[in-house]
Fold each of these.
Amino acid sequence: MKDHPATAHPPLPAYDDAERVARAEAFRDHMASRRTVRDYSDRPVPRAVVEAAILTAGGAPSGANHQPWFFAVIESPETRRRVREAAEAEERDFYETKAPQEWLDALAPLGTDPDKSFLETAPILIAVFAQRRGGPRPGDRKKNYYVTESVGIATGLLIAALHDAGLATLTHTPAPMGFLAEICGRPDDEKPFLLLVAGHPAEDATVPVAALDKKPLDLIAAWV
């Protein structure tokens, strides 16, 4: 193996096994309270919260450490309105002509429809982009690897960080999403990955009962 620069691994907390179990279970319970929210207040969110959450996401593992993601934070009411209009146009087409009946049947218990008013009400939209080329340093134009996997992991950390800060989120994936690149002024070699809505739930916000049905451990994991 070739020599390469390295640094010492930072020390991990010296928990005993009981503490590790307790912390893992506490985090499990905390994240179990996360809900996808479609009804938002227009109450502002401090920029420092969003910046810290994005930096958390930016620390995710990635192929060759190329960090193939970009987070465009959409705050202005005018831009949020443009996003809503473009997304609703795609959604109407989806519900009326594109979606097979099986897909529509799967969505029915969640009560989704072409109305995406939350895109204009919520104070923060984060458009997540996946970069085909880049690298860890400014100006890099290297081929990126495991882009979808890397951006997915980073997005998961972003959602967890925002939840930990007491904010609700929603992942929105209109198809196609090319309008996001145009609105956010992103280059052609970046592909919209998803649109993350973030903010405070409205006082009368509800969650579909069907969304609370989560698979038990024996259906999502096995020890082999």
Note: The longest strand covers residues 190-199.
Amino acid sequence: MISTDAVKKLRAKTGASVIECKKALEESAGEEQKALEILSRRGADIAAKKAERQIKAGLIDSYIHSNQKIGAMLELGCETDFVARNENFKSLAHELCLQISATDPQSAEELLAQPSIKNPERTVQDLINEAIAKLGENIKIGKFIRFEI
């Protein structure tokens, strides 16, 4: 039997639904690390299914470093204005701006393959896949630029 506390803990770490967390814990016999891997795989599967869906909305976000010598601007697309206004989507956009400022990727493909600056065990693509699974819409990186003086 999977405890409610274990489900809550996994949900807090991943943002996945209670049901998905419970299923992952049951499938992994209560082992949290295996459950995290299961949820990650499911997120990638969900992202693959939504990849062909049309991007019609999104937002533009920016980040300026405290020294005001490095900054980034990003266009992040999603399917609806509802998701574009969601705090999780806005947070993802800002995290991507931080990533761009710190690593200076030359293309979206390079950005997606990079380890996250906040959690090097996960790639930027993993972060986007998790957001797609959580928000239920396709998410795509559009144009971005990094400035440095």
Note: The first strand starts at residue 57 and ends at 64.
Amino acid sequence: MNFKKVSLFNYRNISQARIDLDSRRIFLHGANGQGKTNFLEALAMVTALRPFRTHENKVIIGPKGEYSEIRYDLECEESGDTIVEARIKKSGKEVKIDSDPVKRLSDFAGRYPTVVLSSNDLQLTRGPPGGRRRFFDTFICGVDREYFASLQTYQKLLQERNALLKSDESETVVAAFEKQMDGPALKIGWTRREIVRELREIAEPIYETLAGKVEKMGIEYAPSATVEKEGDFLDILDKNRKRDRYLQSTSQGSHRDDYALFVNRLPASDYASEGQQRSITLALSLAIIQYWKDRMGLLPVALADDAFAELDTNRRERFWELLIDDIQLIATGTERPEVCRSSDWKTVEVAEGQFRG
């Protein structure tokens, strides 16, 4: 897949813009806080309509209305030239493909793959579990539409259960409601476990190449509670119901899961250097690109948000060696690195939500 043009309206600090992206290599440069990351986030929305920095629609809607709009002019392996139009409202999202409305968002997810490599990658290892869940969910929702639907259902039911816990409804009513949550929780847990296993097989040798074959990375799915067969999650909810009612929230489940990352079998959050932690994220992102190509037959667009600034020279050079040549790469930074100064690169200047180039 390739972006050809993208139009934005009222997306964060970008009031209105139309940017020509018809190039294999594009670099957006400008000072911090001008809209570079906002633009990459808008591009990434085309994969599953999920922003990679937040889970709330209202955060990405700018000050000039009650919604944001994005139009993507794309070139795709399966459908050729395609126009995707998305409207993000506080209460939901609407999307059209070549003017035809998409009835279910789960049917849309994964048609137009992107992979984000972010300057915020240290948070993947050091930050709270929510960031890691969002990183993996963004990917898994794209490659598995049943997972996307199950996650949507689970999150909706979770909110409703939490509301019941705060009410005066009887234990019988709450227990009856919980039966709806068992299937989605089982699908989420099983898919996360399998995807991590497959991704680990791809990511580990990539990390060894980035690190010069002197280090090994690891990744494990770390569920908050074991859900392996039908009824397991219901048993967990039943066991914790009294505690959950006291806390007025659901203490265990898919929304509390985590992913453990390691370097040389030691927790990356405690023992890995900044360079090692950044290499873990790059290895995972490159593994996701490879997964899309090998498993799904699609070549995603790589969106690199100042991702290489803190890498040492050797790791940076190995990254460029590993990147698939045919992939479209859209990168950002405050200054153009030497590799982005060649004639192969289209450059765009970003200032105060405006784009020139």
Note: The chain has a mean pLDDT of 91.
